[in-house]
């Protein structure tokens, strides 16, 4: 710190060399009028002493007061600087918490949209757009990790460092201001001691002056004895001697105080202020470094964030629409042949044939020679008359174009099992082509497991041979239990392999071969009847109630009407309906969207023809024409007494 004298004769300015801080101490001279009652001789002896004493008193009073004010201002300023560092530390801490929360939300978002561990995941992995989205989620997870790194670096490089620095800064500031207050206290005590010496000297001078005046008065009085005059003279000399001692003491303390004051204002206080200034400069520089680190922490992760974004871009560029569309064909190719052309049905010939038959039939004497059927063609036994039946080919055509009314129980139960999440082991719920692929994949997996077990068996066999040749290395019999276990496992796997290979051979044997378009295929439903299998082959439905395929293919039926016996056979099929075992009343409406089910209206009464077998479905009939399954929980069942007893 450099000292320079300003334009005012009583103004001293301490200027920092860099012109950053300026500490100015203004010394103003206050005019004081002193009254002195001392004698002329006393005043003649000490006029310069009182004059210098008054000047020092006035200078000291103004200088100390101003210094004290500046000290307090500096104390407030440095405390404000420390508060700023604490505030900035809190700002960085909140920024770090924001980064952590953001990273946590990004990770949760990525986890939320990750594919679930199910069979659907295998399906999604086939398509490039699904794989691209999965890669984007993984890159987004890495992106969240970079924001966690930001929070970690800010905590370790800024928050922790500034927290320690603030503690050191507070301790250093406390030390400097403690030294400053100590110096102020010392100069204040010196000033008080100087004031005490000054008052003692002033009092001694006044007493010496009074003693001198008293001696002169006694010496001038002729009535006073010589002894009294001598006594007054000695008293005056004593007082003058005491005043001289007080003067010397005051002069000594004054010289000492001036030295201490000079040292205080030119050495101690400037040094303390210099240390405070250096401390403040270090604090400011530290704040600047922290701000640079704040930006650098963000800048360090930019390359990795860029790689994450590049990974998302690369994944998006890897999407191939044509490959995905071809994969759809590969995934859903059923292997079924499209149906053949629909043949033309000549309804006119059927009508002519019906008229011809009616003309030959007598109502009162039915013909018993036709399969032993004692009934008219237009009437059923024990039933009210109905309209004439349509041709058999027309009925078959209706089966092709309308929703079937009856379905095989096996197909329905299979559909229900699929809804419950249980797939058949033979993959019969899939179309032939997809079933073949699934079975082939299963065979490949079993073959790999068999090969793995065989490798383990070979390794254990070699180990056993080593033990046999070198008994000290181990007991050969200790390997036998493991070999037996592996042999059993291999046998089990081979059995599984043969089972799946049999199913695969069955599928490959039933796979249709592309040929010329054939007649349209039809499906009839399995019933217990004596119908010859020549034209009415029972086939399982291709589609179960939930829309999945079964393994059986429908047989091809020729829809040609040749003789009148076909009409009788069709009548027999209708007469072989299952008997009713009770009734049921619908408690709730049921849509019946799946095939093999019936639509229910609330309050509707239906005939029960088959009880619930434990699968939650009851088979019912409506108007002796429509049959199907309904949920047992949707109806109230009333079984006949005979049925309950049986």
UniProtKB/TrEMBL annotation:
Residues 511-563 are annotated as: Disordered. It is found in: Cell membrane; Cytoplasm, Cell cortex; Cytoplasm, Cytoskeleton. One of its GO terms (biological process) is endocytosis. GO terms for cellular component: cell cortex; cytoskeleton; plasma membrane. GO terms for molecular function: lipid binding. Residues 516-539, 550-562 have a biased composition (Polar residues). Coiled coil: none annotated. Residues 579-640 form the SH3 domain. SMART domains: FCH, SH3. Residues 429-506 form the REM-1 domain. The keyword Cytoplasm applies. Keywords: Cell membrane, Coiled coil, Cytoplasm, Cytoskeleton, Endocytosis, Lipid-binding, Membrane, SH3 domain. Belongs to the FNBP1 family. This is Formin binding protein 1b.
